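Subject: sequence -> structure tokens, single chain

Hey, anyone have a minute? Need the predicted structure for the following. Not urgent.
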Amino acid sequence: MAGLRAMLLSSPAAGYAACCGALERLDLRSELERIAVPTLLVAAAGDESIPPEHSERLAAAIPGAQITTLDPAAHLPM
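Reply:
Had a minute. Here:
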């Protein structure tokens, strides 16, 4: 945890904000049906940034995808 915290704190605020903005605007949902490999989505029950419902919608759009939800867990459960 300390290493992750140090990494985040050492990131330039403008760069972090720009990265968040890019992720906010990125929409590749139209490409999901093209995924042709086994896919497992991992959701975290307590993730307020990317709630499990978001991952469930992605799994529904990817042919044959499976989803598992970790509980208890929050954002970045790995």
